[in-house]
Amino acid sequence: MGLLLDPQREEWAQLAVKETGTTFPHLKDDGSFAQHIFGVPQTILVDRSGKIVEHLVGFHTLEQFSQLVEKHL
Question: Which domain of life is it from (predicted)?
């Protein structure tokens, strides 16, 4: 899920989604989530039971994400 924290950048975020071709859900924060964000970007990998299995802060390549996901399959 993508989360837009800055409502002033909505137009930019929509262009970024279009350019990158991401297909996961993108949400706009109403102020509820920002207080829990410690770094941007932030990735939280959740298993089917809802347990957080990975939590990463910062930029990672597609290869790094693929390795991360493969580890939990």
Answer: Bacteria
Q: Work out whether strand 42-46 and strand 52-57 pair parallel, antiparallel, or are unpaired.
A: antiparallel
Sequence letter at residue 25: P
Residue 5's pLDDT is what? 81
- The pTM (predicted TM-score) of the whole model is 0.51
Which comes out higher in pLDDT, residue 36 or 45?
45
Question: Do 25 and 45 lie in a common domain?
Answer: no
Amino acid identity of 15?
A: L
**CA distances to 43, 56, 71 from 64, in Å:** 12, 11, 11
- Residue-number span of the structural domain to which 26 is assigned: 1-37
